[in-house]
User: Fold this.
Amino acid sequence: MATTKALALPTEVRLKVNENGRVVIPVEFRRALGVDAGDEVILTWKDDEVRITTMQRRIERAQRHARQYVKPGTSLVDELIAERREAAKRELD
Assistant:
């Protein structure tokens, strides 16, 4: 998936809305988001503006955010499995 850091993207583009209420996302933006024809995008309305993203981008952003709070070398999966095993063990006692 391409990243916006690797591409020189304009920060703003003016688009026309057609009679059906549609706009065409410019190819540079689609490539930066990794969006192909038929892919699903997510529109968000905030502060009188529309933001377009993908589920993959949301996941990546959440992972970056979570990484700030996890010590290097820590496996959250391993911790979760250990906690679940301990809980299951307590249920059997």
